[in-house]
What does this fold into?
Amino acid sequence: MKTPNIIFIMSDDHAAHAISAYGSKINKTPNLDRIAEGGMRLDNCFCTNSICTPSRAAILAGTYNHVNRVTTLVTKMDNQLPTFPKLLQDNGYQTAVFGKWHLGTGPGHCPTGFDDWTVLPDQGRYHNPDFIFKGPDGGTRKLVKGYATDLIADMSLDWLKKRDKDKPFCLLCHHKAPHRNWESDEKHESMYLNEEIPEPETLYDDYKNRASAAEAAEMRVGVHMHEHDLDAEINDNMSENELRKWAYQRYIKRYLRVIASIDDNVGRILDYLDAEGLAEDTVVIYTSDQGFFLGDHGWYDKRFMYEESLRMPFLIRYPREIKPGTANEDMILNVDFAPYFLDLAGIEIPESFQGRNCRPVFNGATPEDWQTSMYYRYWMHKGHNVYAHYGVRTKTHKLIYYYSDGLGQEGAKNETYEPEWELFDLVKDPREMCNVYNDPAYADIAKELTDELHRLQEKVGDERYRKDV
Ligand code: CA
It folds into this structure.
């Protein structure tokens, strides 16, 4: 059988709970839902570090961040590392990436392993953005008129139209949206104007019964936003909760409008596949580099190992193998994507890739020994004042250890605080509002999870912060 084409569409900061296929209470995404209807929705897809640059490195290289050394937003990826696009290119695939890269620019960091690429410098702009076009010495920078989401889809479609039809392709379409500061295009700017968007249950979280890290984080909707985030003056006379209530409406509408543009543009790509008769032979994935707080815990942004930020949306369609309209609760991680792509292309997965091939999961035949726990590490100590932490999540519980130390990582602050633990019972407390680490009833579970955390650290080759805890 022919090896399939791959279209990997990844947006930036799109939480699963803002996709209607995931039961969103706040918006509709009919085109993203087309992928789910034609394939599978993964309900427990997790990132191993919930910020842009590290998650992108984990996806491309199939390794954890202590291995690929991309630990924070400012640590660039060495473009000599082995990645799945390079191996696909070496094995006869046409490869391209368009849109957000955020793994560094210039000769040592620009995209490699792609026949063609055009990427935004760092985060890039929504309107009339500069792009870096493939070329010598790390490429050429040029302003392109238009709206980033439309432009990235245009570039992707142009490349598809020009491709060699006799060879399989792997296209990475990386949207900048819906990253902060959520600037809509004209087409969607009046969406939700006279509507009240439902508030999340934990919008007015007071951070009691948690480690001190939750209260310390500077990512609260309202007080930790700027006027350019809300396109409005912030009234300093409101109480914090009044401000949170008002700012949430402005924030979430802005966020959802930029998602509406992603949804339209995903529709354009799906339409192209249908029109060209390519849908059967093309694996289409929609994901995001991590989740996001949509007012959950009173926050925007990500970073924490809490559910809304840890969970990545992951919709996949491949009619030749994946049963349409299905959902799956098995745990898959961002490091598992690369081995899957290699396997699709019939390439042997090199030892250096740490993830596990999730093809059997997608194909409805999850192996008996499939992972039931995962390891997470956020290195960027004090980014948005979120303390460095690592932890383990199982199907029912989550243990987090805030080691709260920058450890000399570029982009992390070199301040150290007393470490703290959090333990959540995800069955009884799915919103993670009550830390039960010191509850004697959970002593055995805390011990088991600590052992599991250390086992996973050993397995992936990461070091414990202190050997004695
Ligand atoms: Ca991101």
